[in-house]
Write a structure and sequence with these properties.
It is built from six helices and five strands; from the N terminus they run ββαβααββααα. The protein has 199 residues and is of the alpha/beta class.
């Protein structure tokens, strides 16, 4: 069972992102404030759950959370400010949308850019340790998956329905054959060095 909170006295928002390592598409982030007594036996890091479990948990989190929000940063913005800063920006945008002002932030990972004057804790593998971060990881992941599924309808060659724009063999083969789309992150290495991409 994951920990319910870092500090019982504070309103805590858990934050996580999804899609940081992808070759295309937005990076998504979520912020979630859970009640201190929230319980769920299967809630965990989204990467450890099946697609079915994530889809089951998402509406439950949205219903039970005191506050939640999801935001994104585009591939164009990622190319302009780099993926690390884009991940921070996505989290800031999610926090901007919360209808409750948290007193403390629990951030998945080892780095974060300070948000307003709210203190934060960076927790490595926090999505497997704290419920609010795990909940944020599930929302960020499922909303990004939905977004990639829609993009797949417009660009079916890249198999985003299955790879969600990660650098799978099929995705890279499609880039070689069809080139990059407007959704690809041009600051990323889309193909191995021995292959060149003609733009």
């Amino acid at each position: 069972m994951l920990k319910k909170y870092f500090d019982k006295q504070l309103i805590e928002a858990g934050c996580d992102e999804a899609g940081r390592g992808c070759l295309a598409g937005d990076v998504f982030a979520a912020a979630v404030v859970l009640p201190k007594n929230f319980k769920n036996k299967i809630l965990d890091d989204s990467k450890k759950l099946t697609d079915k479990q994530r889809k089951y948990l998402r509406p439950l989190i949205e219903e039970k959370a005191i506050a939640w929000s999801v935001a994104s940063v585009s591939a164009k913005e990622i190319d302009e400010i780099n993926i690390l800063n884009a991940s921070f920006l996505a989290m800031h945008r999610a926090l901007d949308k919360l209808n409750v002002i948290p007193q403390s932030l629990l951030i998945d990972g080892n780095r974060f850019k300070k948000y307003k004057d709210i203190p934060h804790q960076c927790i490595i593998e926090g999505d497997g340790k704290y419920m609010s971060i795990a909940a944020a990881s599930i929302l960020a992941k499922t909303y990004r998956d939905d977004y990639m599924d829609k993009l797949h309808e417009e660009f079916p060659h890249y198999d985003w329905l299955h790879n969600k724009a990660y650098g799978t063999k099929k995705h890279r083969e499609a880039i070689t054959q069809y080139g990059a789309t407007v959704h690809h992150r041009m600051s990323f290495r889309l193909l191995p060095e021995q292959l060149t991409l003609e733009l």
